[in-house]
Amino acid sequence: MAVTAASSSERRGWQGLLRAHLDLWFSSFHPGSMQHDALALTAALRKTFVNMNLARVRLDELGRMSLSDSGTEVWMSTSAKYEPFYRWLEKILTTVETYTDTDRLVRRADTNHGRESGGVG
Question: Which residue has the higher pLDDT, 10 or 95?
Answer without folding.
Answer: 95
